[in-house]
């Protein structure tokens, strides 16, 4: 097998020291050199409420120092099977949403062309749209969305269509996301209208409200999600506000009453074997995270997802 | 049906902007114009430990900006069936407990006379007593109390009888609360004496310790509470310290080991159909709430309770 | 004289209680009813670094509760000579900078048409541009700018011209600001280029670097500023980052080594008698203000400026 | 000379460890054993705005761990000339202001009878009144008051006369404070009325506004204060809100634009030789002090004042 | 029975006031006077990541003020059956790890000789090693370890063997801990190597990963732990990082996905009747605990454990 | 001239984004490639009170993003005259002080051999000793020390000689520091003994107490410092606790009453032209820095010092 990279040892420098990269991995510029590209996307210009997710990538990199190479349940490491590195932050424009979307798509198109699978640290949830514009060039992909919000509103503020609350609808409309192969897990919270989720439902999205999650249990959610997504290529988007804000207060639009981190870990682990072509962890907003736990949760979820991506990448490579 | 008010749209002003009122509802002065009066009661002069609940109403109003009009489980809105507005803060005196109690009772007597059902944002838990003095003029009412503490001590600090740890006992002694129709949910934490809760028990109060809550489960608690309270008029008091302080650290007397917010939501939803004549959410103390989650939980619970009150009010009106 | 409004008394409700308006003044919708309109402008879409100033208006309103009606040096109150009220938050769009600028200008044009002098709580510093587009319709106005930054860069992020670091240049280019009648007080901090401030200097702006402030002293700064601005109409813009971040950490682009709050107060007081037609206090970013002192400073500076505006308004009315 | 006590050495236990007492001094119960009694008075029931000073004594004790035995300017230690110990917290009632005042006065009368000079860590500023009722039994004393507020209002909230904003007026009315021998240093901030300080002025109090402080300079203030207070017995009360809130944000009623800590230190040092019979440091409110600097300033000022009290006590003993 | 001590009443001084000792108990110096010695061990020199546990004992003492004398489930008090007091902080050296270990062992050997059972508030987890060197002089003891980490690494940073990640291994190697009678509860988090826990497993330690905890449930964990530990003398060490960091963020090496506080309480209660000869609560790091909940959890767990120790001590005394 | 490096432009990535290096400079491994090496030294094992400076380098790197390339007074950039890069964190051992000192000295000896001038971000102040052991191999150097503490104690905790309070004494004793060419600026705060500073004084160190600083003024201090240090090689050590803790609360041993940041900037600027061979900024402790201002001040002072070092390096090169 090709050589892979491993996190810097903590023998010479303790884990709180040394360069700030995802999981203490090397920082590289060439996407062709990696199987999986870890990226930051410090953009929160699609935020309709509290901004701050622009500082998410840095906080996630710092918190990722706590993550060692091996998963304690599988006893395996993603670095055994995939070349993984920190590809830095994607370019964008914090002021102009239109140009930001274009810059992001162009950057991820480059990653795709180079054969790198992206795992992105947001940023607000709008970033999933330009990423999918780059990744779903061959047709719509399945979507597993951990989230408190459906993100299928049509527009905000008098007709504006590109926000972190509308991107899933745009993705479906643009043919990037296959609604029949889309599952949303943990939806809850008050709604603007009684039929707030109708677009998703009429489009065929499978919505698992938090009440469904408690009713089905983790195993039931996993089973349902695997049924919905099936065998084709799929993207995993993990909005930390799906988790209860006692665990993740540092986010722009918290909704009380979510699942625990352990439940989230178990659900993600249950997705092993899906054909994941990319993923993101979004909506970590450090200015609202006084204890830093949101960033720690986000970094841990990134690692859980990285393990899936590494195996999926290896499986595709055969 | 009569015209109702709805929260200000977030189309023109994002939810973090605009006037600070409960749920972005109009601010009115006339209680006769509303079915349900949302009030702040910024009083914490009955606090025996850490003060700060005086700042609760403001924090709850701010956090209530996150709450949209429709409940995601019922898909209904309280504003469909009731006229609801923000009636401002009730008058009180932060220094003299005696006068504070009098001012509060007089204010709520006015609300009652005008036909408005009050949902109050405290303040410390002592406020429930003067509110009940105004509301329970026709005889004792049932009480559903979510709380870590029984609040049935006799006195503090050498005989002082009016504190946030004695008000339930006072309410029973004064004939405002019917102990046989009273249920306390989530009681826990160390006690001053082995028989600390004897007054409650000998008076006939149904105490559900946190161990009972875990044993019975949410459905069992709901069933038991509905049995105890029965069909007559009842008041709901929600002390956020009933919830585990991981979710609600911003409170004066936290006790570890409580229920989750989702469990609290489910228990409150289970009380639908009771004849609620008023309610409060108390003990949110913002100076001890660095992440703001306690206020968010409090505001969400206010909305859950508002849904019950609106239906109860509509049912009484026929 | 016409009736004026006064802050709500703290006899019935302590100052931490009651509705959240600027200085506890009434909230009105009609600009024609006031001499001076206090407004919030919760917009930070022009921010090139740390966002958060969108939450400034709310924090400034809350902190303004600490401000009583009379100035302790003049022993006079602005409410003696002017009708002052809280006109709420101006409309804008948090996502689209272009539309935001248009909405703001339209709103302030309405205020101007109604004869109301605006004192605005930002928001980031970009807001000064659309405000001046509305106010300076009769020709360029003088500008007194308290700030660490000249805000005369040309563009950011590949040519974008509308940010909180470019608005003064735009204002000069658009003929809204008279550079000969413009003074900037407290400029400091590292620069992108050795000639970073050349546009300002070549345009004729008077730049008082922080070293100039210490060399001239408060009295010297005041004298110089009055010379520069002269007798014509002028606008005062107060960026809290002009003050040292020990006093005002809660801002997006702090620069160490600024003046103290007392020096700022003395400088503002020294501007009494200028023909001020409007003013703003900007760049208060509450997510970075753990002690709340930045908001308190901002609210106090708003009051100092309000005193000047009220006298100027009265003087113009004769 | 009699044996004195010295702070616990940091050789065996670092300064952050060990029992929590003022300056790491012994904790004693018998006031007759000491020359100077350090006490906490964890009472904030007289607070008209933000409570929290009840937690002041604990925070001041903790911060006092940073204070070593010798003053770096005088190179002398108060423990060389006086027996100083921590006498614990004075009894009070957090709920009933009337009883609180009685309990405090009784406790300090006991201290006075035992010959102990009290240096008190508040608590809110109302505590100065019951202390003076105990100490000024032989006639009115002089008062040196470091403060942003005159505290000579007549009443609050509909006639209530005992608050932290009225105690100096009460003290003058009750003949405890000699207004002719009273100086207030640092008064500033907006006022409820143009003549807000008229009681103080008409009674003969010397008010040094913050503008006077800057005009006179530290040496001038010291000279003026010494003239006013003269040779008779005097009490020193140090409200931390006299200092600018950049240094002391953790207080209930901050007013921007105050003096620095170094100026405060120099002014206190300038009072050496006055016949001080007691002192307090008040209004440290830890819930509003995220960095802890307010407590550190308060503890340092306590030490500066302790040095004066020790010398005054020694001088009286001859 | 011999006289015991009880916490200071809150009648004269509210619980937030008065001396800072564990559970408001008396502070004593003589270990022979007590059955159970509560101690602080403010040492974090064995920390490999974020320091701060040196401030744990003070925070735990402060938070222990919230704990009343009687357990709400058993309705009994440890003070009924055992003499319990605060013996202060153990001596150590914050700079030199070698001397620190020696000083600690010597101090606890003195406690053992005096017949006092120690319940220690750490400090980082390395402190368990020198404590066991003093307590396990008669042979290895059983160990119940609540923890996210096994702490059986061999060395860090190029061969250093004494850290808070190696002490359990050292304890087994030195014959202080009987691995066959050792159970670790809650182990989780990423690992340095796939076989990271091999030392523990090959030595015979029973490891209950967090997945095991969820699979077995609280009752199952308790049953398993009791089987493993059996009837002989045992030591209980409670690392707060075993609990999920939503409850306990204030710790040096947080691992997401842990058990709740209520589960921890239930597991500890299930250990009643074991022959416990000492215990500690470690890794509370206040600088990372903005809400203070970690300290509150720690203090509550100390009380739960104290109840076990008191009964075990009484049982041994017969 | 040789090619130099410049900070990453903020055109493509805003300053809050991108890799975390000092001043956004490249990260290099080879000291021979640079004139000036920026390093982190995340070690706080010499701390006698509150630890946390181990996190200083990361916080300083992050805050350094605010620093642009050109100095606003000189209008020059250090990158014009010197090759400057981020050389990463120096190796050390957080647990064993002896080995830590050896590793540090070895690393800096390598820098010196390669011809790189080090500017170090601490870490606690002990790090200056091992750095000087590497740099002062040709004889004692002059020392300019900005600090609240003399750091010339002999030992702590029973004879331990290597702490952040003893390193200057060690440096003099070891012949690394020339006391006659040493000036300490800002010394203040209480002392362990009346003669606490006698070692420094008897050795010939020039101590400028804070009172001297205010008496002499900035210009006087600069003149005195230049006289003392003279023309030979000198090292500049900047402990942020020399600055008042209102500006720099995030430090282990704060002392109130220090100079302002602007005064510190002016004093450092006054040292231009000295033959500086290295420098450090120490004692930034992020866990005690809630607003982040301490890190911002530290990063700004690093830049001020970098300007001096670059010129000195260029002058030596001729």
Give an overview in words:
The structure is a homohexamer. Chain A has 9 helices and 8 strands. By secondary structure, the first copy, chain A, is of the alpha/beta class. In chain A, strands 2-1-3-8-7-4-5-6 form an 8-stranded parallel β-sheet, with helices on both faces. The longest helix of chain A has 25 residues, at about 295-315. The N and C termini of chain A lie close together (about 10 Å). In chain A, about 70% of the residues are buried. Chains in contact: A-B, A-C, A-E, A-F, B-C, B-D, B-E, C-D, C-F, D-E, D-F, E-F.
CATH superfamily of chain A: Ureohydrolase domain
Overall helicity of chain A: 25-40%
Give the strand content of chain A.
15-25%
Q: Tell me the number of helical segments of chain A per DSSP (H or I, 4 or more residues long).
A: 9
- Spatial sequence of strands, sheet with the most strands of chain A: 2-1-3-8-7-4-5-6
Biggest interface, CB < 8 A: A-B, 35 and 32 residues
Keywords (chains A, B, C, D, E, F): Hydrolase, Manganese, Metal-binding
GO molecular function, one term (chains A, B, C, D, E, F): agmatinase activity
GO biological process, one term (chains A, B, C, D, E, F): putrescine biosynthetic process from arginine, via agmatine
InterPro entries (chains A, B, C, D, E, F): Agmatinase-rel (IPR005925), Ureohydrolase (IPR006035), Ureohydrolase_dom_sf (IPR023696), Ureohydrolase_Mn_BS (IPR020855)
């Amino acid at each position: 097998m090709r050589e892979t990279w491993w996190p810097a040892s903590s023998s010479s420098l303790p884990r709180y020291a040394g360069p700030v990269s995802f999981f203490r991995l090397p920082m590289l510029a060439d996407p062709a050199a990696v199987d999986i590209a870890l990226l930051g996307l410090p953009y929160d210009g699609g935020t309709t409420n509290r901004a701050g997710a622009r500082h998410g990538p840095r906080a996630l990199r710092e918190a990722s120092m706590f993550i060692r190479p091996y998963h304690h349940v599988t006893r395996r490491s993603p670095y055994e099977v995939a070349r993984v590195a920190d590809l830095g932050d994607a370019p964008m424009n914090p002021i102009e949403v239109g140009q930001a979307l274009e810059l992001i798509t162009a950057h991820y198109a480059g990653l795709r062309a180079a054969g790198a699978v992206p795992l992105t640290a947001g940023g607000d949830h709008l970033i999933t749209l330009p990423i999918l514009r780059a990744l779903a060039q061959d047709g719509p992909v399945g979507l597993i969305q951990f989230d408190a919000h459906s993100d299928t509103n049509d527009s905000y503020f008098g007709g504006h269509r590109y926000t972190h609350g509308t991107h899933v609808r745009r993705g479906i409309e643009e043919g990037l996301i296959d609604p029949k192969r889309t599952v949303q897990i943990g939806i809850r919270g008050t709604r603007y209208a009684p039929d707030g989720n109708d677009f998703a439902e009429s489009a065929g999205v499978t919505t698992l409200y938090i009440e469904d999650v408690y009713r089905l249990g983790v195993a039931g959610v996993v089973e349902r999600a695997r049924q919905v997504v099936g065998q084709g290529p799929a993207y995993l988007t993990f909005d930390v506000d799906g988790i209860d804000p006692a665990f993740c207060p540092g986010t722009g639009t918290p909704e009380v009453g979510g699942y625990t981190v352990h439940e989230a870990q178990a659900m993600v682990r249950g997705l092993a074997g899906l054909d994941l072509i990319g993923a993101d962890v979004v909506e970590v907003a450090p200015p609202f995270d006084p204890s830093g736990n949101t960033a720690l949760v986000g970094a841990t979820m990134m690692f859980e997802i990285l393990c899936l991506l590494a195996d999926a990448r290896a499986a595709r490579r055969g």
